[in-house]
Description:
Blueprint: H1 2-13, E1 20-25, E2 39-44, H2 48-57, E3 64-67, E4 73-75, E5 80-86, E6 94-97, E7 100-104, H3 109-118, E8 121-122, H4 134-139, E9 143-144, E10 147-148, E11 153-159, E12 165-168, H5 170-173, E13 187-194, E14 196-197, H6 200-217, E15 223-227, H7 237-243, E16 250-251, E17 254-256, E18 263-266, H8 272-290, E19 299-301
Parallel strand pairs: 2-5, 3-5, 4-19
Antiparallel strand pairs: 1-2, 6-7, 7-13, 8-14, 9-10, 11-12, 11-13, 15-18, 16-17, 17-18
Amino acid sequence: MAAKSRTTRLIGRLPAVRGRYTEDAPLAKLTRFRVGGPAEVRFRPADAEDLAAFLTAKPADVPVTVIGVGSNLLVRDGGVPGVVVRLGREFAAIDADGTEVGAGTAAMGLNVARVAREAGITGLEFLCGIPGTIGGALRMNAGAYGVEMKDVTVVARALDAAGGVHDLSPGELGFTYRRCAVPGDWIFVSVTVHGRPGDKAGIARRMDEIQAARQDSQPLRESTGGSTFTNPPGKKAWELIAGAGCRGLRRGGAMVSEKHCNFLINTGSATAADLEGLGEEVRRRVLEATGVRLEWEIRRVGVTAGPAAREVAGEGAS
């Protein structure tokens, strides 16, 4: 009842929107891990203008967290304070023009690759190997099979924390390995990527090869958040984890994948605390065995559960 009262007070402080607010909104089913507590308020904007108006008018002290399809996200068991923005199908349009593809940031990377294929645009096949939305791929400069977002991005549109609109060039995006330099409280709403003319049949074959390789090497049928840690310079995270004896390691309902040990799996009964705790144990063992400190690639948001719940940074401690 106390939580409900708190949420109602937040609802009362938020501006009128054309989209939809949902209080005490479950988030676990919106993530691949299938764990975590609720959003204090979830907001699904009607379009980019609605989102901009919300950001302009909301109280400055209300935190905002953006989620996509939860493919690389761990929501902590105590839930997420403030407003969680979930971009829906209104942000998922995709269109091709010449050798460029424009997409809303809620569009799946796989669907962007498919549109490019049908338009005879090659160079974007790697997107079918990245689970999640094109917006998430942009935020973390996602890459696979030798190509990263920095190699294909033409321009990205983002809203700043006050609702201002910014069209950002690759230089302004400041891409580095699994990072971009855009402030964390800015929200990407669209992106244009480029390829080059190609043969549809050849593009389709390459996409099939990428998806087959993922199927063979990754636990795609499990509840997992994808790659857990970034690769340290000159090294592979999975090799360090295996070398530290962590393959198959368990904590509660969480397990290090036997198939690819840079993946954590919810075996069915894990909590977010199990998964995060297991990840920290893996980091500890790798540091002890090799002197290398693994950095989280999975984004962790929200607060821990229980009477001593505390808010922690969205990206987590390194």
